[in-house]
Amino acid sequence: MSKPQVLVAVKTFSDVVDRLRPHFDVETHDTDQPLSQEELIRRLQGKAGVYISGSNKIDAALLAACPDLRAICTMAVGYNNIDVPACTARSVLVSNAPDVLTETTADFGFALMMATARRITESEQFLRRGEWKHWSVTLFAGADIHGATLGVLGMGRIGAAIARRGHLGFGMPVLYHNRSRLPAAQEAPLGAQWVEKDELLRRADHLVIVVPYSPSSHHMVAERELALMKPTATLTNIARGGVVDDAALARALQAGQLAAAGLDVFEGEPQVHPALLACSNVVLTPHIASATVATRRAMSHLAVDNLIAALTGGTPPTALNPEVLKS
Ligand code: 8YV
After folding, report:
1. pTM over 0.85
2. What is the pLDDT of residue 228?
3. What are the pLDDT digits (tens) for 22-78?
4. CA angle 11, 292, 322 (to 5 degrees)
């Protein structure tokens, strides 16, 4: 009997991909340029499973065009690129890759917040341009992290790991906003206090955004919200482009409504709003919050674990719609 066919639609670690070979006929995509939607659909013909990343879009049209598909396994924790209800309606299993990237991503969120508050990239660029002629008392004077109020918007696993760093490592009072308040027993070790979103924006010295993207979080931080922030505050976005209105953010930064921003994600990435590129008080990184070798390997392994289990009668460890396996 021939083996089921799968597509690894993202170039990833070859030894991790090799784990699929005893079970499946494996086709790979061997460049870092994401497959176009047309090409993805073409290459999914006859495939039972696919390994994807956040750069691949799975919608109802793709599902209709790829009727053999039984499992979609993303190496990302975020799955706003996948229409999960449409997959469920067609009994296609979907899995994501939570937990394995939590601490790495929290490290990066904290680092980006610190780089933003302490003006690290802005001052490095100044130095590299040869503009450092003398030391001065206020040369790149920024804002303290220790003791400042940390605001966490979206208190999921990564938000909690950032709060823990702020509370235990830097003595920061932690405020957070989330649709649902955490039980007191989970708030206590993070030193975290739930507040309404507007209060969070008004009181945070350093706001870190970690909410998943969905239609309800689209432009959750836009002109009105930015106007509530302290002129000395920083904003760090490691969630998704689209949660923050980037054009409004650039205007707010130019108007001095907040001091600085650290951005790892952008609306329409890899394009970056030109007005943000023009702001010197913005630290910009290309969606790398989970990018350590160990963590990217762990994310890849987890996607492979899910794909193998989903198509060999096992239990995928991190399925988003496990109910489809029962039907
Ligand atoms: C990924 C991410 O690197 O996991 C997520 O949701 O945003 C990043 O960790 C990226 O999306 C992989 O596609």
Report:
1. yes
2. 98
3. 999 999 999 999 999 999 999 999 999 999 999 999 999 999 999 999 999 999 999
4. 65
Residues with CB under 6 A from ligand 1: 53-55, 75-78, 101, 289-290
Q: Which residues are catalytic?
A: 240, 269, 287
pLDDT digits (tens, 9 = 90+) for 159-170: 999 999 999 999
Q: Cis before residue 270, ω within 30 degrees of 0?
A: yes
Question: Which option is the CATH number for 102-284: 3.40.50.720, 3.90.1070.10, 3.30.2130.10, 3.90.1170.50?
Answer: 3.40.50.720
Return the ligand 1 atom nearest residue 288 CA: 3
**Sign of CA pseudo-dihedral 183, 197, 157, 323:** positive
Residue of 273, 280, 215 whose CA lies nearest to 243: 215
Q: What is the mean pLDDT of residues 219-229?
A: 98
Residue 73 tokens read as: 């396994």
Q: How far is the CA of 49 from the centre of ligand 1 (A)?
A: 20
One fold for 5-98+293-326 and 102-284: yes
Kindly report the protein residue whose alpha carbon is nearest to atom 3 of ligand 1: 290
- Domain assignments of the chain as residue spans, ordered by start: 5-98+293-326, 102-284
Computed over every residue of the chain, the mean pLDDT equals: 97
Question: Residue 157: is it exposed, middle or buried by C-beta count within 10 angstroms (0-12/13-18/19+)?
Answer: middle
From the CA of 63, how far away is ligand 1's center (Å)? 22
What's the pLDDT at 170? 98
* Architecture of the domain delimited by 5-98+293-326: 3-Layer(aba) Sandwich (3.40)
